[in-house]
Structure formats: C-alpha cells, structure tokens
Fold:
Amino acid sequence: MRIRIATVIACVVVLLSVGRVGADKRLFTDAFTPAEFSARRAKLMAAIGDGVAIVSGAYDTATYTKFRQNAQFFYLTGVEVPRALLIIDGRTKTSTLFLPPHGGLERSEGPLLGPDEEARKITGIDQVADRATFEAALKALNGSGRTLFMPFRAESLGAGTPDRVSSRARSTAADPWDQMPSKEEAFNQKVKAATGLEPKDLDPIVDMLRTIKSPAEIAVIKEATRIASVGILEAMKSAKPGMKEYELEAVADYFFKRYNSQGIAYFALVATGTNSAWAHYHQAQETLKDGDLVLMVYAPDYQYYTSDVTRMFPANGRFTPRQREMYGIYVKLYQAILAGIGPGPVAPRRAEVYKRMQAIMASFPFTDEKIKAAATRFIAGYERPGTSWGHAVGMEVHDVAGDRDGSMRAGNVFTIEPAFTIPEERIYIRLEDPIVITATGMEHLTSGLPMEIDDIERVMKEPGLADLWKGTIPALERIKK
Structure:
C-alpha cells in the first residue's frame, strides 16, 4: 500500500510540474519576449537617473470579464496579474515586481504568476516579491531624498485612450456629485505618505518611449490592422439595403474574435447615410437604404495594441454618378497625401502635397459646384502650415505622442483621416489608413483594402459572411423569443 501511495504522489507531482511548465503561455504574454520588456525598463532607468519609478497595475473587476492590464504597466512588464505593483530603481538598475500570493480565483480560473522564482524566470524581472512586502519597500525610501516618479494620468483599460481618460477626469472634478479621486490619485497619495517623497509625473517619460515603436510592436500593430481590414472587407461584401448597421458590426466582431483579439479598440462606427456626419456615431440601429453611402470605422484590441481603419462604400454596391464625383475627387486628394508622407519634418512635405492637390483640382472634371467648393475647402487645410498628418496609433487608438517637434521618425505609427464635407447636406466622406514611418519612406498598412471606386464595386459583388449566415438563420428563428 505504501508503494502505491508513493507512486500516486509521484505521478501527481509530475503532472503538476508538467502543467505549470506547459502553462507558460497562459502565465505570460507571447506577444513580446522578456528581453523586449527588459529593454523598455532599461530605457526608463536611463531617463530617471538616480530616481525611483513606481507603477500600479490594474485591479481585478467586479464583472465576469477577462482581466486586462493597463497600458503603462503592460508596456513595462507584460504582466497580466490583478493588483501587481512595480518599483524600478534607477540607481541600482533593478526592477522589483510585487505580486499577490497564489490562491483565490486561481482555483476556478487557472494559474497566475505568483511571488516566486518561477515568476522571476518567466518575466525576466530582477526580483519578484510578495505584495505584502511592498509597504516595507516604500518605507525604505523614506528620508532618502530620491526623486520619485509615478503615473499621474488615470489608467487606460480596454477601449480607453489618453484623451478620453483626461476628459473623464475633468468631468469628474467638475461634477459636485462625484469628484472622486482616480485610482492613481489615491495610490499616489498613499505612496507619498509612506515615502515622504513628492511624486513627479512619470507619464511623459513613458509616453516618449512609446512614441517610437520597436519592430516587435510594429508586427503586432500590423496584425491588428490585418484583422481590422478583414472585418471591414467582409462587412463591405455583406452590406445590402435593408440590413441594420449593427449587422455589419457583427460581421467584423466575428473576425475579431476568430483571430484571437482580446476585445475592441473602440466602439464600432457604422454609419449609413447622413449618420456619418457624426464622426463618432455608434448607435448602429439605422437601416441601410438604397443610395446610402456607409461609413465604417472599427479595429480590434489585439495583444494590447490596436489600429484605426476607415472605409466608405455604397449600401447597394454601386456608386451613383454624384457619389462617384464626390468620392472620386476625395480619393485622388487622399492619395496625394499618402504619396507625400515620409521621414523628416512634416511642414515641407505638406507644402508639396498642397501643390499636388492643386494640380489634381485643375484637371478634375467637376460637374457640381458644391462638390468643387467642398474640395477647395479640403485642400485649403494643406495650404496652411502644419506639423502633423494625423493621430498616433499603438497601445491605444489615440495613442500617446511624446515627441511633438513636427518631424516623423522611423518607428512612428499614425493614421491619416481627413474629412470631406458638405455641411448643409450632412455629407461626410472619410477614409483612414495606418502608416509606419521607415528610415527611407513609409509603409501603408492597409494598401490591400479596397479604396478605389471600381475596386469597391467589384469586391461588393462577392458574397460576404452575412450571406453565408443566411442559410442558418431560419433554424435560429425556430427558437422562440
């Protein structure tokens, strides 16, 4: 009997060991290597000198949703454990990760990194300690006179962005029935009390690091863009008069999930007809009508990175003559912008784009004075000096942009999304494409997604995912509501 018990125990130990070793991908991200995160922390150490940086991870939620780490903590660690804490010491050039002990939800939801040697090996972080020891680490800084850096901006989670986070903070501060401090404000005050040090804002330093994307980051953004493009293309092919806006959203959602996205980068903007005049319209309840143009803007949250892609297409698959004129001049002017993008100062490149636009206007066969006037207003924006093409894209769809000197550098990723409008008719036309700046030029990440009129009309003749679903819907309808 003793031999049998010993054998069983040995087998259990072996199985547990294999389970833990085989669980590495679930314990730590496979989007980037530990060396990538180590290099980011090393750059941060160089930036803070003799200082100390302290960052709090996201807390667990009160909902049955998958945990998602906040942007700043993930960028520096890759760790996806609720209530994790991080100290980066610029003097000793070491980092310490503080994790809750094993237990709790792990019993029902599976393993997480814990405060042990395994976590240190998997993450590549110098030291991993129990979260209960964090207070002692803070008290050791008391009286040190060291410079303390902490994030001031509230954390971005899921479809959050710095601009929306800041807007919410302003609304909260101005609301007499709210005025609750953010998680960061409360945490920073507790750290200040424990260390006796006055925190300085860490966000501008991390934002500067995040501005230039590494090759590994660009690869993830490319995949996020590919997934977005597939979703929009299939929605375009599926579109028919009589469909609801939300049905096109559902098509894209399927592909986002199929390709393992962890969520959405922002709410879907599917706007038919004059709904497109609201740039961020997202009610998605309107019916597509014959003769409508449909605006669709959507992208996934993939491996903590995203994209931003926009296309417009006719609900019935065919542009009317007037739509061909409006959209046709817009596409030509839009392509002139794409052709002008590259590394270096933006202002002189925009001036060259304006010259190209003038030549396009001179040769375009306008038949509608309203369209010509709208195109004239459009190019006027490029006659004036400018230092930007659009907004940055990365971990957030309106990503941080630490470098604002008016120049593009290799590793910058951003989108262009100029709008063509006839306000009195609530006409709004927009495309959007993510761009990567390279050492010698640029890479257009959505070049394979139809943009030209003939290409759009041709692809819309193909069956889309919604057409394939039609055969299964009658069976679903037999299930009573």
Remarks:
- The longest strand covers residues 94-99.
